[in-house]
Every structure is written in C-alpha cells, then in structure tokens.
Amino acid sequence: MAVTIAPNQAIEVEMTEFLVIDREGNSHEVEGAEGASFMEAIRDAGIDEMLALCGGCLSCATCHVYVEEAAIGRLPAMSAEEDDLLDGSDHRTLLSRLACQIFLSAELSGLRIALAPED
C-alpha cells in the first residue's frame, strides 16, 4: 500500500493481515500497517468490542486477547507491567496478552487472536 505524504512523494507501507474472533465467535479478517499495535488495527477495523480504554498506554487491560497457542513463541516477551495488569483479570490464561503490547509484523502475519471476555 502506498501512502502519499506530499505531491509526487509516496512511501510504501507494509501491511499485515490477521484474524480476530469476537466475543460472539464471529471471525474478522483485519489488516494493519506493520509497526502498529494489534489493538490499533482491531479498533481501526471497527470491532467495537476492543475497548482499549487507556488508548494503549499500558494502564488497563481492556484490550485483553487470547493468542493462538502455536504463535506464543513468536511473540515478544511479556513485560512485568503487562503481566501485572493481566493478573487482575478473572479470564487470564496461558494464552493471554494485551493487544496494545503486540505489534504487527511480517512474522505475525496470519495470527489468530480471540477477544477475551470483559472483566
């Protein structure tokens, strides 16, 4: 995808596609610019169940998602702050992550994530 930033200038933006399962079990194919967070891409796709109340500042856990088990090893390590926020969720599992802390990249293309229930 090319983005024009000035007359006669364009930059290529690499896009990453992934699959989101909403709380009703519906699948959504989502695409976002590499480097953006999964949270941003999900909200930009109009999936309103992604509350993300803090806007990605790592001060809430309303972007809690479950990542497919096969992909856990491809994700960056969880920070202590993310771990602490997830500890406050009644729905935390070994597959839990905050979507604001995972960033789109070619390595994560095709990832399947499910929105966790609201706390």
TrEMBL record:
Residues 17-119 form the 2Fe-2S ferredoxin-type domain. Its cofactor is [2Fe-2S] cluster. InterPro entries: 2Fe-2S_ferredoxin-like_sf, 2Fe-2S_ferredoxin-type, Adrenodoxin-like, Beta-grasp_dom_sf. It comes from the Bacteria. Keywords: 2Fe-2S, Iron, Iron-sulfur, Metal-binding. PROSITE patterns: 2FE2S_FER_2 (PS51085). Pfam families: Fer2. One of its GO terms (molecular function) is electron transfer activity. The keyword Iron-sulfur applies. GO terms for biological process: P450-containing electron transport chain. Belongs to the adrenodoxin/putidaredoxin family. This is 2Fe-2S ferredoxin-type domain-containing protein. It comes from Sphingobium lactosutens DS20.
